[in-house]
Write a structure and sequence with these properties.
It is a single chain. This protein folds into 2 domains: about 5-195, no CATH class; about 275-440, no CATH class. The chain contains 16 helices and 12 strands. The protein is an alpha+beta fold. It has a 6-stranded mixed sheet, covered by helices on one side. A 6-stranded mixed sheet has the order 10-9-11-8-7-12, sandwiched between helices.
């Protein structure tokens, strides 16, 4: 693997490539009813799965609303701008634009930083209109892939919404695409030709694009420091806009999202470790899309843990009889392997590091999340990042002891505190492991 890609996407990128190469096809979004499926008996009316609304019916309703707009092989509209790079078949992947058959400002359609507070119905509503055009290319031969690939990159670097015409080989097909990492989008079809209107690049991204001696990691950090939205950096990263010229290549969208979150949070984390520790126990909270986030900060050296509890009937525990808890963590030295929790781990780490850098403080941080039945379908890892960012914007509850902080969290959650402690490496360490400072006293740094 070239050094630039290694630096940009971290060691876990190779794991992602291996996993992808073994996948024959992507999972169907709509579950196929079987003899054992409650869907056959329920038919979207009895809520036998435990969800508060039927996700299949939500998807179908929005799909049916968009069908009249997708009855032709010729699609004309305004792209937010947005592109999607697939991962199935890597290194040969499908690339192309996302465009709704809508002629107005659609910039909101691909700016998750501005979605917080909107309902699942609103988000699914405008994302379901995005038609995906597909063109197969090799990730390392993007420059020789022709006009469609070139125009796709132009679109990814555009600052504002862009007029776009797609000529497809057939009418768009498929249901609403849902993924825990990627924002949803609508039907797709192969591209025969595409025409892109006048595009104007974001000058900050354009500068990084034309600097072919600037490493990808450095480009990402420079753009972030200059106030470019994380979503826009991720989009440009996915089309190989950064890095040493000979090493540039496409990065599947879901990988680029996590890679950028990882790159930025690692850099912030190194700053955090140079700051004095906080002097009290803190709990930050955010509630959105029936996800309850409690962020616990402990006055200690930097370490981090992400924990997720999925109720029966939720996205990743649809037929379970009990709540499942997943977690992963890292010590002060960081981590070199891909977190089992997935992209949510890095998204939340970015959000908490932003706050600690802003305060010039460090802490041990544990992000606890309860995903309840109202979270009927995944809308992308952005909701974790923006949920935790929202928590960081709130005034924290302050406590003198860890027990007091945990009692508060316990009252906010429905899952017994004991289960969280048994699952958590850092909580067990904080509660039961003695430190030298406990015997000799701890000198505070101000």
């Amino acid at each position: 693997m070239p050094q630039t890609l290694h630096n940009a996407s971290s060691n876990w990128l190779m794991d992602m490539i291996k996993r992808s190469s073994n996948s024959a096809v992507e999972e169907s979004i709509v579950a196929r009813a079987s003899r054992n499926s409650p869907c056959v008996l329920c038919k979207g009316a009895r809520f036998l799965c435990g969800k508060t609304r039927c996700p299949i019916m939500v998807k179908v309703n929005y799909y049916l609303k968009s069908v009249p707009l997708m009855a032709s092989e010729d699609i004309s509209g305004v792209s937010p701008p947005s592109v999607f790079i697939g991962r199935i078949g890597y290194p040969y992947v499908y690339v192309g634009p996302l465009v709704p058959p809508v002629h107005e400002d659609t910039s909101l359609y691909d700016l998750p930083e501005q979605w917080f507070g909107r309902s699942i119905d609103e988000i699914v509503g405008f994302r379901s209109l995005l038609i995906r055009g597909k063109h197969r290319v090799h990730v390392e031969k993007f420059e020789q892939a022709g006009k469609i690939a070139e125009k796709t990159r132009e679109l990814a670097l555009a600052e504002n919404s862009v007029d776009l015409e797609l000529n497809l080989t057939k009418k768009p097909r498929g249901f609403l695409f849902m993924d825990d990492d990627v924002q949803p989008f609508g039907p797709s079809a192969p591209i025969r030709d595409m025409r892109v209107g006048n595009t104007r690049f974001d000058s900050r991204i354009e500068k990084a694009y034309y600097d072919t001696d600037l490493r990808a990691t450095e480009a990402v950090l420079e753009l972030y420091s200059r106030g470019v939205m994380v979503t826009k950096i991720q989009r440009a990263f996915s089309v190989g806009a950064f890095g040493i010229e000979k090493n540039r290549r496409l990065v599947p969208t879901r990988w680029s999202i996590t890679a950028v979150d990882d790159i930025i949070s690692k850099a912030l984390m190194e700053q955090v470790k140079t700051f004095p520790e906080i002097s009290e126990y803190r709990v930050y909270e955010s509630v959105y899309l029936d996800n309850i986030f409690e962020v616990l900060m402990i006055p200690d050296a930097w370490s981090y843990e992400s924990m997720e509890a999925w109720y029966p009937g939720t996205v990743w525990n649809p037929h379970g009889n009990s709540t499942l808890i997943f977690s992963d963590w890292e010590g002060n030295e960081g981590r070199t392997t891909y977190a089992q929790v997935g992209g949510c781990y890095y998204a939340a780490r970015l959000a908490v590091c932003e706050q600690l850098v802003k305060e010039r403080r460090q802490a041990t941080v544990i992000v606890l999340r309860e995903a309840r039945p109202g979270y009927i379908m995944p809308v992308g890892v952005w909701q974790v990042r923006e949920n935790v960012r929202n928590a960081m914007r709130q005034k924290p509850r302050l406590f003198k002891s860890l027990n007091e902080a945990l009692q508060f969290i316990s009252a906010r959650f429905e899952i017994p505190l004991r289960r969280w402690i048994l699952q958590s490496e850092l909580l067990k360490k904080a509660l039961f492991q003695k430190k030298i400072s406990d015997f000799f006293g701890k000198t505070s740094v101000s």
